[in-house]
Amino acid sequence: MINSSAVGRKRDHSRDPEILRATLDVLADTGYADLTIEMVAARAGAGRGTIYRRWAGKDDLILAAIACTDRADLEADRLPDTGELRTDLLAMLDPDWLGGSERRLRILASVTAMMGRTPEAAAAVREAIVEPSVAAYRHLIQRAADRGEFPGPADVDALAQVIPSMAAHRALFLRQPVDLPFFTSIIDGVLLPALTRGGQSTHP
Amino acid sequence: MINSSAVGRKRDHSRDPEILRATLDVLADTGYADLTIEMVAARAGAGRGTIYRRWAGKDDLILAAIACTDRADLEADRLPDTGELRTDLLAMLDPDWLGGSERRLRILASVTAMMGRTPEAAAAVREAIVEPSVAAYRHLIQRAADRGEFPGPADVDALAQVIPSMAAHRALFLRQPVDLPFFTSIIDGVLLPALTRGGQSTHP
Amino acid sequence: MINSSAVGRKRDHSRDPEILRATLDVLADTGYADLTIEMVAARAGAGRGTIYRRWAGKDDLILAAIACTDRADLEADRLPDTGELRTDLLAMLDPDWLGGSERRLRILASVTAMMGRTPEAAAAVREAIVEPSVAAYRHLIQRAADRGEFPGPADVDALAQVIPSMAAHRALFLRQPVDLPFFTSIIDGVLLPALTRGGQSTHP
Amino acid sequence: MINSSAVGRKRDHSRDPEILRATLDVLADTGYADLTIEMVAARAGAGRGTIYRRWAGKDDLILAAIACTDRADLEADRLPDTGELRTDLLAMLDPDWLGGSERRLRILASVTAMMGRTPEAAAAVREAIVEPSVAAYRHLIQRAADRGEFPGPADVDALAQVIPSMAAHRALFLRQPVDLPFFTSIIDGVLLPALTRGGQSTHP
DNA sequence: CGATAAACGAGACGGTACGTCGCGTCTTCTG
DNA sequence: CAGAAGACGCGACGTACCGTCTCGTTTATCG
pTM, whole model, 2 decimals? Predict the structure, then answer.
């Protein structure tokens, strides 16, 4: 390895989760711009130096905190499989994710703030948060299409983004809850109609 | 009036646009977090005091800069009216808006950053940027529906958010261009299919 | 005259004393460094512009305020003339001048502050305050010498500075009152002994 | 100790002299009113925060800079002792102190400026600068008197202030050099005559 | 088991931006 | 047109946070 010595005190990586949790707490409490490393260190009972030794700075720390949030429920083999797309989709609504808590909302907004900073930050957020969600919806829709649930061809890539896009938009920009009624209105008003009709417009 | 004195030198409000334009320039050049009042003042040829006298701080200034951006093209009577929804929608693609320029993208990201700060900021952005766009699409879709362009009922409120949501999502989170192919794929792959089929799912 | 027009409203020079008095008041209340033109203007019921139109700035204003203080009692023909130097000197003690009031003390300290700024300021203070006082004492001593009150020659220039120097030193640096006991101790302990002995040291 | 923490990086007090020297340099170069903390910090190669961490502000910094100037030559056991007062006094003339350099003069004027600010500042200057000088002259004069160098009693307290007072007056208010001719004129024209004659006036 | 070397909490360091305030100048309106 | 009121460009103030660097202490491995 590059940066490890055989001797000396070992870095206590058991503190990492503690610090990252403190980061998310402060992020939710005070927002991105008002978060200071000192606040995180104080809440984690750590020194600032310890944080700087592990992460490059504010953005890197927050990115790490975001990235380590458990998205295991979006892995392909843990997705709902009811045999019907509509019920699969409704089962995806995690009240604790986007719209459920003000906490999550503020964290999402903070993350968004960082995306404008560097391409690296944007890519990290995309990989950690955005892509898994889109991929999950793509999986469900593709599976339903493969089952022959819909008459014609469908633009699965576009449709897979409908729910993540609209949920984020609602939470971030409209600041309204991403709840069951909203989910139902998207599924029944946009997604399923589009699929039922097929991916082609009738307009020439 | 509330806050005007009959005497003394008048505040030169002809400088407002100059300063706000400088704000957007700096915002696009260096991003939200690295923007300083000094930069804006220097670019506008003003003193920092003059800016603080007019706006409460960084966020208020940026909000004002955003709010005064010209959205006249989204007013109802200036929207495209080709007699057919698809061509109307395609005519809405303003290459200078979301995806065309890196400038607009950075500004949008910066704005998003502020939405997590205060409810006031969020409401201001919503009213200045989000709502007008959604309202414009709602207008086009409702008009087409009134023309009887589609067979059944449609969830116009939900459908009106499809394009704004997905465009913002693509620009902000995917960092890909909001261009004609993308627009076409949404219109032909999501919006028009959903309308053609109607606003009701066939699922019981 | 250089700067007078035949027409228009005439500058109201009757306001000058009012403003200069306000200057001294503020100077005594808050000191040199904390004095602002705004304070003076407010106390005089004037606008800042009016002050800047008449004096070049803070230092010039204060200098003018100092210079116009009435030192008429130091003119040669108004000095005490009792026929004897000691009683003349004691009659010079103006309890309202140097040591009497904290007000005068603070003003003196403020003046001193300005002397380090420019040679012009120093010269102005010297001419307005220092020189007249030294000249008065020189006049008294010279007159007594001319009367033959003392046996030998005297270094009148040096001796004339004894009282002003020691009074200023006591007030400024020791911050003790320049009162009758102090005056008496200088006159009887320094000045008259030196004169009585004569201006020449006996040391070879 | 009062204000020391057991942990954390220690304040580097070896930088104090460097900063205080820079303070005196700037003070002499630009004067009291035009001195800025930034100038001092830049010249000392320090950050402004470091200065504010150690001293409360401009006045406190300058006071500290003054107070730490080396006055060791005024300690009793290092005073000249020629066996005769006149030569002792002449040996006191330090061309580098009051009048020799413009530098010292400007510093003295700056110090005087602060004496009007707070009683604390005045006391600090008095103790650091004024008192030691007066005490030194008192020592010399008292020793000569004890030797029986003069016929009668003398008001030593008053006489000890003659040279410091007149030197300060000459430098500050007359802005003339405190040099050997001046020193000689005071000693031979004021101080020694007064002592030779005695501390009592012949006037009834 | 003692030496040693890195990690740790704490906090000082050189910087930089903040938001405020006073400078001296310049409008604007009132008398 | 002088004067009050106050906005203007400028720049210093004192504070707070950045990311780095000592401090003295703790902890883990190696000799």
Answer: 0.86
